[in-house]
Amino acid sequence: MKKTLFLIITMMVSFSMLTIAANDNKKRRNVATTEAAPAHTVLSSSADTLSYASGMANTNGLIPYLTSQYNVDESYMADFVKGFNEAINKIDDPSYNAYTAGTVIARMVKKQMLPSIENAVKEANYTLNSNKFLEGFVASLNKDTTIFKQEAATSYFESTMKAAEAAKAAKLKAEGAKFLAENAKKEGVISTASGLQYKIITKGDGPIPTATQEVKVKYEGKLIDGTIFDSSYKRSDPITKFRCNQVIKGWTEALTMMPVGSTWELYIPSDLAYGEQDMGKIKPYSTLIFKVELVGIESTEPAKPAEPAKPAAAAKPATPVKKVVKKK
What we know:
Layout: H1 11-22, H2 46-57, H3 62-70, H4 77-89, H5 94-123, H6 130-141, H7 150-183, E1 189-191, E2 197-202, E3 214-223, E4 228-231, E5 240-243, H8 249-255, E6 263-268, E7 288-297
Antiparallel strand pairs: 1-2, 2-6, 3-4, 3-5, 3-7, 6-7
Helix pairs in contact: 1-4
């Protein structure tokens, strides 16, 4: 795919300016279009022709890239060409390199860093003043320690965020514990010694897999607020295969009690799920809900004979997990 983005020769300046002038009634005109166009390029050799054609060919995909990655309005292409020509002639100038690096970092701060930090502090019930953030950012670069020394600012920020994260974790734990306590009282919900809860939707009559056997399942996972974070049902092939002891503890325990053909709803406390790990849509200390269909046992290892699901008093403790992996 032709997407080489960075080779443009001088003739492109004339082309861009003439294009904008011709479309003056359709697009906003900027100051750069009033500059005189350079003299027409003459191609006097095969090398000239190849070079010129190469320059044009290597702009394929450039404008869509500028639009999507840099939010460049195509009606301002003359300004882009002007900046390109200025930069190409100063590419070895240390002062200019520092300046252009500043513009790159400014975009990163504005588009990525600030939104990310704003979201993080918002989740912890804090507010970020973007202007003060930028003042502190620049003060550090200028080695201005009037208000904070670098180490003190870093320590303050990290300790505040750590405390906020701890408060958020405690809140999630409390919400999960409350949900499980209320859920345990519902009809049909069975609790095991480990804290796992499950409800039998469909009772299968097939064999029960062991922890080391590979199984075939269909599933859907959601948070206690109902947000679905993963579902094999939405894939072209909804069946997923793995060994019972290669997943989170709550799954391992449930699967090694389920006869093939069963569909259970699992209610998994965070310590039997991902614990303090941040899994993107699954935040640390999240209690999870899964609908799981045990379709079959893939491995040839002999399976246990089917037997009725056991109540809480007789339930087996969870099989230790050797490796926790995120389901795909």
